[in-house]
Design brief:
The protein is of the alpha/beta class. The chain is built from 16 helices and 16 strands. β9 and β10 form a beta hairpin.
């Protein structure tokens, strides 16, 4: 008995070809449903796994990088100067032009114009300076310069004074490394450190408020155009050194000495807690260090191995340290305002140096009792604005260059908006530099902030180390196990349909 006979008997078995789910159209519908789901889901999968890479305004960035911020400055010579020597202005102009040729970095961004009594006076107060004859060479009120008759007759001396005031000379490498990077906000931390709370060398309280009001707050007020400051103070009673100072033999007594190498490691970061608050703002520390009885007096040793007269030193881009030895006029447990006068006068000078304030040229005095003249403030505004513009241009150029070089780097809408905001702020900085260096600084600061935020956006680096090869390695095992049976079933069904069509054709023939 064959299988056909068994299938046709009453045993209950049916022919598989007559089952409902084995019919050709049902099988093909099921197979087609799988392929329809895959085809419809493919665009969504491609969108979810693809990298968002918006176009950056590359042409605008390239054009902005080639621009330079320019501050027009007008110097008006009073009639008292030109009457002594009519050709004085032309000689000074020639010397200043030669200085700009030989020192181009010093005069970058400065468009200087000299005017005499016959020229029309510029009404822009932010860029107008006046030079007049006086009893001595000094900086007068506002943006006026008084020169003595001797200096007024020397074009070399007059041009040297003007160049030092308008375009301060480029700092040395050590000086440039000492100045902190520009920031809108700074925290000033004033700390009284007792190395050891021994009875004879222990300071419990200090009149820090009175000293701050006298020396620090006026400087902060003058620099409010550039920075916002937050001031904090604290007293610590145990701040041991991380090294043992060198012993020195003086005439009548012994002392401890700090070599130049010791100054670089003076801060014991492991045991000193100098920051009392949590903030992302840069911190400038000003430490008044009271050495212990064992190490007192604590002297700074110069390069020749002899005790120096100075009691303070600057740590570049960090702050200042003042060593208090025996300069106590009151109770050892308390530092009065008179005791703190030399300390905070030194702190104010070093704060200005850390912030990049140009010093007053040698041979010049300030008539008004002003801690910072307008000449110095304007020069600092121009220098900081120029630095911000340069930093913004370099950062934007780096973003565009990285995006062009790394094809897998994502560029989201946030990054693109920050780049556009930086470009708009740069344009405003160029425009406002003609009228106000303070406004130019504000816009340049915003441009630098936007460019830096775009460059360090975490979304740009999220998939930087996950290239397309990794994506294929992850999805290939999943798609291969699904696609191979579907492709084989599709091919097999297509071949069955083709054979059935050929058989039907033969029957008709």
């Amino acid at each position: 008995m064959n299988s056909a006979a068994i299938a046709s008997s009453g045993s209950g078995f049916k022919d598989p070809r007559k089952l409902s789910f084995e019919r050709d159209w049902i099988r093909r519908a099921v197979l087609a449903s799988y392929w329809i789901v895959i085809i419809l889901a493919f665009p969504f999968w491609w969108h979810l796994t693809s990298i968002e890479r918006l176009a950056l305004p590359t042409n605008q960035v390239q054009s902005q990088v080639q621009n330079n911020i320019v501050f027009p400055i007008a110097v008006h010579f009073d009639a008292s100067i030109s009457q002594q020597n009519p050709s004085q202005i032309s000689q000074v102009h020639t010397l200043l032009r030669d200085s700009a040729v030989h020192e181009p970095g010093r005069w970058t961004g400065v468009d200087l114009r000299l005017q005499d009594r016959n020229d029309e006076v510029t009404n822009n107060a932010s860029s107008l300076y006046t030079v007049a004859l006086g009893e001595q060479t000094s900086i007068a009120h506002s943006r006026h310069l008084r020169v003595s008759k001797t200096d007024a007759q020397s074009a070399t001396r007059l041009s040297s004074i003007l160049s030092d005031l308008i375009a301060p000379p480029d700092s040395s490498t050590s000086h440039s490394q000492r100045v902190v990077q520009y920031s809108d906000h700074y925290r000033l931390a004033f700390t009284l450190l007792n190395e050891d709370a021994t009875p004879n060398r222990f300071v419990e309280t200090w009149d820090v408020q009175a000293a701050l009001a006298e020396f620090i707050f006026p400087l902060m007020s003058r620099l409010s155009t550039l920075h916002n400051f937050t001031v904090e103070s604290q007293v610590q009673y145990h701040a041991p050194l991380a090294f043992e100072p060198k012993r020195l033999a003086l005439r009548d007594t012994e002392a401890s000495g700090l070599t130049q190498e010791d100054l670089t490691v003076f801060i014991n970061s492991a045991e000193w807690t100098l920051s009392s608050s949590v903030s992302n703002d840069p911190v400038l520390h000003f430490v008044l260090f009271v050495p212990s009885e064992t190490h007192s007096p604590l002297k700074i040793i110069d390069s020749e191995g002899r005790p120096a007269n100075q009691s303070s030193f600057i740590l570049p881009q960090w702050g200042s340290i003042f060593i208090l030895n025996n300069e106590l006029n009151s109770s050892p447990l308390h530092l009065s305002y008179n005791d703190l006068k030399p300390v905070f006068h030194n702190f104010a000078t070093q704060l200005a140096a850390l912030l990049g304030v140009p010093p007053v040229p040698l041979g010049l005095s300030v008539e008004e009792s002003c801690i910072l003249s307008d000449w110095q403030l304007d020069a600092l505004l121009r220098r900081r604005a120029w630095q911000n513009v340069q930093g913004s241009q370099d950062t934007l150029h780096s973003i565009v260059k990285l995006v062009d070089q790394i094809n897998n780097m994502p560029v989201g809408q946030v990054v693109r908006d920050d780049v556009l905001d930086a470009l708009a702020s740069l344009h405003e900085a160029y425009r406002t530099a003609v009228a106000s260096p303070a406004l130019a600084l504000r816009w340049s600061s915003k441009a630098l902030s936007m460019a830096s935020r775009a460059f360090f956006n975490p979304g740009m680096l999220a998939l930087l180390y996950f290239p397309a090869e990794h994506k294929y390695a992850v999805y290939t095992p999943l798609f291969a196990s699904i696609s191979v049976p579907l492709v084989v079933a599709l091919i097999r069904d297509f071949m069955a349909w083709r054979r059935g069509s050929q058989d039907d054709g033969r029957r008709r023939d």
